[in-house]
Amino acid sequence: MSRPEAEGNARPTTGDVPATASEPLPASVMAGPVSHAILRVARLHRMLAGHLLRRVGLHPGQELVMMQLWERGPQRQTDLVRLLGSDAATMTRTIQRLENAGFVRRLKSPTDKRATLVEPTAASNALRQEVEGICLDLENSVAGGLSPEQQAEAVEVLTRIEDSLVRATARSD
User: Fold this and answer.
1) pLDDT digits (tens, 9 = 90+) for 20-52
2) Is 14 left (phi over 0), alpha (psi -120 to 50) or beta?
3) Contact 98/62 with Cβ under 8 angstroms?
4) How many CB atoms lie within 10 A of CB 58?
5) Do residues 95 and 107 touch, judged by C-beta distance below 8 A?
6) DSSP symbol at 119
7) pLDDT of 129-146, one tens digit each?
8) How far is CA 31 from the centre of its chain?
9) What separation in angstroms does the CA of 35 have from each of 18, 19, 49, 132?
10) Distance CA 161, CA 41 (A)
11) How far is CA 143 from the centre of its chain?
């Protein structure tokens, strides 16, 4: 994708909405245009997800925990960390916030007295359809303008990028 280089092509932005992808990249970003594009897309995606999820009292990332619990039933917190690729501290804060909001409860595992299970509450079960609808709205906003072939290609490229990042992360440990 080419980018206009002339400064006159820049469009003003308003509020929290960042500049558009058609604006020229700063010279300092030219060494990493793919990384810069990923950062921009991730920021916008999180911003839109946050806006949509606020309607049901959730924050980005919490819906992923809820989806795991709705789909798999009660889970150990350590299993949620593994399933979602999170870290223990972040998951602890997320579970505490969901518990304070009345969407999950913690209970002792009947099979392992050291383990605590996290389960969805009736209040969160009532949100499931709304959250699934929000996910569809978000997906349509992300990929609605792409053909099925372009969507498949985007998923393939993003999967290769993810695999590359997983390998780089493993090497850095």
Assistant:
1) 666 776 777 777 889 999 999 999 999 999 999
2) beta
3) yes
4) 25
5) no
6) E
7) 999 999 999 999 999 999
8) 26
9) 16, 16, 21, 29
10) 14
11) 15
Cβ atoms of residues 69 and 118 within 8 Å: yes
Q: Dig out the tokens for 58 from the structure.
A: 């959730």
Report the candidate in 34, 2, 37 with the shortest Cα–Cα distance to residue 19.
37
User: Rounded to the nearest 5°, which phi and psi values hold at 116?
Assistant: -115, 135
Sheet with 104-108: list strands edge to edge. 75-76, 116-120, 104-108
pTM (two decimals): 0.77
What's the CA gap between 106 and 76, in Å, rounded? Answer: 9
Q: Identify whether the C-beta of residue 70 lies closer than 8 Å to the C-beta of residue 129.
A: no
Nearest Cα neighbor of 132 from 82, 58, 46, 79 is: 58
Specify the amino acid at residue 23. E
Own/partner pairs, 48-53, CB within 8 angstroms, 24+ separation: 48/138, 48/141, 49/134, 49/138, 52/134, 52/137, 52/138, 53/131, 53/134
Report how far apart, in Å, the C-alpha atoms of 79 and of each of 8, 72, 111, 166 are.
52, 11, 15, 19
DSSP element (H, E) containing 157: helix 148-172
CA distance 69 to 79: 11
